[in-house]
Automatic annotation (TrEMBL):
Its EC number is 3.1.3.-. It comes from Roseateles violae. Pfam families: His_Phos_1. GO terms for molecular function: hydrolase activity. The lineage of its organism: Bacteria, Pseudomonadati, Pseudomonadota, Betaproteobacteria, Burkholderiales. This is Histidine phosphatase family protein. Keywords: Hydrolase.
């Protein structure tokens, strides 16, 4: 039996012109995770990542913390996040101000939830994005690749909240909308663990932060 670790990227640049960039804190979160695994002797046989900049930067931080030879990642576009701005524009075409205070942030995520619901139902098609069925198939393809090629191994996936929550939904056979709630509560640099055989994945843990379980670590917990 193998183990698959799915890691959400570290804190990115929410509210900035370019979200797809780790903050200094996001980098530190990922380094801490690598250090946590190094202290426990964990080494990976294979790594898959999405192709976004924050995925590559997060993996680089984890590898820095591991401080040991880590396989070069297999880049897997099916592990890329949906475009949250496109999702919102599909149901709210009017321009939105950059979220600069807590109420605006809450408004942003209310619209995101509504947009995701519409996308999943097929009631809206965000510009430049695949259908939800195609998005889900990209995630399933990565999971199937692990089953087919890495039986008995220790495998790392570095991705985003949407693909990771979708993977959990696929393993648990939950309604598609359940992944929205999983998605919106997933924390930066969190670890979700699957055990896997050649035939299937099984959920072991979801959205954990063992590497931040120390006195000062609570201040490092972020969601966006």
């Amino acid at each position: 039996m193998g183990t698959l670790y799915l890691v959400r990227h570290g804190q990115a640049s929410f509210g900035a012109d370019d979200y797809d960039q780790l903050s200094a804190l996001g980098h530190d979160q990922c380094v801490k995770l690598g250090e946590y695994w190094r202290a426990r002797g964990l080494r990976f046989d294979a790594v898959l990542t999405g192709t976004l900049r924050r995925h590559a930067q997060s993996f680089a931080g984890i590898a820095e913390g591991l401080a040991d030879a880590t396989p070069a990642p297999l880049l897997w576009p099916g592990l890329n996040e949906y475009d949250s701005e496109a999702v919102i524009r599909a149901i709210h075409p009017a321009p939105l101000e950059r979220p600069g205070n807590p109420e605006m942030v809450r408004h942003h995520f209310r619209l995101l939830r509504q947009g995701l619901q519409a996308w999943m139902r097929g009631a809206a098609q965000p510009a430049g994005m695949p259908s939800y069925a195609e998005f889900s198939a990209g995630v399933a393809g990565a999971l199937n690749h692990v089953l087919e090629h890495h039986h008995g191994g220790q495998v790392l996936i570095v991705s985003s909240g949407g693909p990771i929550s979708t993977a959990v939904g696929q393993v648990l056979a939950t309604p598609a909308e359940t992944t929205i709630e999983l998605n919106l509560r997933i924390r930066n640099s969190s670890v979700t663990e699957f055990a896997f055989t050649p035939k299937r994945h099984m959920l072991v843990t979801y959205n954990t932060l063992p590497h931040l379980d120390f006195a000062e670590g609570a201040a490092m917990v972020t969601y966006a």
